[in-house]
Amino acid sequence: SQKIEQNSEALNIQEGKTATLTCNYTNYSPAYLQWYRQDPGRGPVFLLLIRENEKEKRKERLKVTFDTTLKQSLFHITASQPADSATYLCALPYSSASKIIFGSGTRLSIRP
Amino acid sequence: GAVVSQHPSRVICKSGTSVKIECRSLDFQATTMFWYRQFPKKSLMLMATSNEGSKATYEQGVEKDKFLINHASLTLSTLTVTSAHPEDSSFYICSARDGFNLPLHFGNGTRLTVT
User: Fold this and answer.
1) Selected residue of B7, B37, B44, B60 to mutate for chain A interface (largest A Cβ count, 10 A)
2) Is the Cβ pair A100, B32 closer than 8 Å?
């Protein structure tokens, strides 16, 4: 069955450093992959979408890569700030592509 | 744009009662809405997919008679937790899709506590 794994449950880094989060998937080939941010007690907020024919996508301090050979996406936040502290979720279309399933999330903490 | 409003944000109910949660797309037509459940420090678990005007499709292990979903219009879907029990206490989140467009737009969730 299709599986999504975000390897780090929690990640703590110093302000100003680059945070790198990992999303791995198995047993299928999604046409795209998404990253969302979720703050405590709130719904997820969309950040970036990358398609299978794109290697990399950037938005301000965010960068996402998509390696369909490794079945992996990396999510980078450069010049991290305490306000970036949140849980980050990767999401993939399910087999029928009409629904989206989420990884377990990585809780990122940026310390001043 | 693309705002999804979910109501109520918090609800406390007694065991055995039913609770209705509303999810509205405010500025777009949502042909498809999704209902998720989230336990503390866990990811979103898809419960069901609802399409306007048709019956919802439930994920394996989700009781359709327990979690009633209605998607009567292009801007409103409701989730009713029937005969709630303490184990139904959770964070329920809806999301909506504007046609086949991405991304999903999420409501801010409903914290249900069953006493």
Assistant:
1) B44
2) no
